[in-house]
Amino acid sequence: MRPNRLQQIFAAKQTAIGGWCAIPDSYCAELMGHSGYDTVVVDLQHGPLYLDAAVPMLQALSSTDAVPMARCSANSFGEINKLLDAGAYGIVCPMIDSADDARALVAACRYPPVGTRSFGPTRGFLHGGPDYFAHANDTILVWAMIETPRGLQNLEEICAVPGLDGVFVGPSDLSLALGVSPSPKWRQPPLSDALARVLAAAHRADRLAGIFCVSVEFAIEMRQMGFDFVVHANDASILREAAQAGVAAIRR
Question: How far is Cα 89 from Cα 129, in angstroms, rounded to an integer?
Fold first, then answer.
C-alpha cells in the first residue's frame, strides 16, 4: 500500500503543514496540492462542498505530493466509509463530545476485527494499491475534533480511546464553547489555556495534536508551541485575502 507520508513526518518528530479546501473544485484542490503542503483536507462540514465534489477533489490531490484527507460533515458511518473508499488517507471528524463518539469514529475507519468499516475500497485500490486491505488499518489517520464544552470536559477520556491517532482543535468553535468570540484570540485566556490543555493531554496519551489556524502568524505560533499538525487557513480565505491585498495595493 502507498505509504502515508504524514506518518513518516510524525515519526521524525516534525510538524506537518496542512492545506484546507472549502471551494468545491478539483482544479483548486490540485493547486493546493501542488503548493507545498504535506497534506490537504477536503472539508465537507462547512461551505458548499458535498460528496459529489469531494471525490474528484481527492482524485486531483492524488496527483500531487500532498496526502489526501477529508473532514466529514458529522460522525456518520456512511459518509466516513464513502470518503475512505474514495481515497482519503485520513479523516478529521467534527464535534467529538465523548469517548463513545471517538470509539464510533475509530470503528468507522477500521476494518474488522478492529472496527466495523465495510469492505469496498473503490478508489482505495487505485490510490493505495492492491494490498490496500492488508494495510489500511495501519495507514489511515483518525482525528477527533475537540471544539465543544463536552469535548473539552471529556478530553482525557477521548484521548485514551484505542486506535485514535490524534485530536484536532477547531479554535473558533472551541472559543464559542468557552463563552468568547469565535474570532480566535489564541494568546489570551480562556482559549490559550484550553489549547495548552489539549496539547498536553494528547501528548500524555501518546496522541498527535493538530489545529486549524486562521493566519500564518497563528500557525507559526502553534508550531512553536508543539502542535504536530497545523493548518494554514483554507483556500477561500487565502484567495480572498490575496485579492483584497492586491486591490488595496492598486488603489493606493
Answer: 13
At residue 237, what is the residue type? S
Q: How big is the CA angle at 64 (ends 62 and 67), to the nearest 5 degrees?
A: 65
More confident call, 183 vs 107: 107
Q: Which CATH number fits domain 5-251: 3.20.20.60, 2.40.50.140, 2.30.290.10, 3.30.43.10?
A: 3.20.20.60
Half-sphere exposure of residue 37, counting CA atoms within 13 Å on the CB side? 28
Overall pTM surpassing 0.85 (yes/no) = yes
Residue 3 preceded by cis peptide, ω within 30? no
Catalytic residue among 46, 127, 135, 203, which?
46
Per residue in 108-164, pLDDT (tens digit) is: 999 999 999 999 999 999 999 999 999 999 999 999 999 999 999 999 999 999 999
Cβ atoms of residues 80 and 105 within 8 Å: yes
Q: Is 232 a residue of the active site?
A: no
The owner of cell 472551541 is 174
